[in-house]
Design goal:
about 260 residues, two-stranded antiparallel sheet, alpha+beta, 2 domains
């Protein structure tokens, strides 16, 4: 009976050792699996970080390329590469109707011409101005934006009604003109009388029009403004200039009845 018990105890010890060995093996296996997962997780994290950096680099490249393109476009738009036409130095009288006109692509438009005539150059009055009513001998302020076929504003006029009946703005006459450097994006060859245009030297303007009736002082950023005003009449020419004495904008007004 004692022998059996002793053998049983020995068997139990062997079983216990075997179970202990199995447990140790399981722990080792689990430990190795955990290490592998940790390495895999670390590698994934590194890969994600690398991908993120690549994405950011790509975005930065795209952004820089976009900025470069934008700056290049802006530079092209602001650089005036035209050949400024030679001014006809013949003296004109701004107190008459003679100098109040402009030319686009060889087509002349005078004060008093129909706004609808601008269709010859692919231009039209904006819808708001075209639908406004203008009473006899009246004019429309703030509704004279002239648009091209892409509906971009190229310059401004004042619609004028030289007749005795109320009309729509689309039926009105050209009563004024206002152009600046932005107009050159669409019509680089636009001129007023005697080939004066944006970029013309103010000395040439003075040779054509004479001394101005008034002149503003220059500022740190801009040159003087020269005005030729007909006292007691809705008729004038205004030339803004830059620090170099070049014309930067031209405005004229003349309400002519035809």
């Amino acid at each position: 009976m004692n022998i059996i018990n002793e053998e049983g105890i020995n068997i139990m010890k062997k079983i216990t050792k075997i179970l202990a060995i199995i447990a140790i093996l399981i722990i080792c296996v689990l430990s190795l699996t955990g290490c592998g997962n940790q390495k895999e997780s670390t590698q994934k994290s590194k890969n994600n970080e690398a991908n993120s950096n690549n994405t950011n680099n790509n975005l930065n490249t795209t952004y820089n390329t976009s900025n470069s393109t934008s700056n290049s476009t802006t530079s092209n738009e602001t650089t005036d590469t035209r050949t400024i036409p030679e001014v006809d130095k013949k003296v004109v009288d701004y107190k008459t109707d003679e100098p109040y006109y402009f030319i686009i692509g060889g087509i002349t438009y005078k004060a008093g011409d129909k706004i609808s005539d601008l269709s010859k150059s692919g231009l039209h009055l904006n819808q708001t101005g075209a639908e406004k009513e203008i009473s006899k001998y009246g004019y429309l302020i703030g509704g004279g934006a002239i648009l091209n076929e892409s509906k971009k504003t190229v310059f401004n006029i004042t619609p004028f009604n030289g007749g005795t009946e109320t009309i729509k703005g689309a039926e009105a006459q050209i009563g004024s003109l206002s152009i600046d450097s932005s107009t050159l994006k669409y019509f680089p060859d636009i001129e007023v009388c005697n080939h004066i245009t944006i970029g013309t030297a103010i000395e040439d303007v003075i040779q054509v029009f004479g001394e101005p009736t008034s002149k503003t002082d220059a500022t740190e950023y801009y040159g003087p403004t020269y005005k030729y005003d007909v006292t007691g009449d809705y008729k004038y020419y205004i030339f803004d200039t830059d620090k170099d004495g070049k014309v930067t904008s031209i405005k004229w007004e003349n309400y002519v009845t035809k």
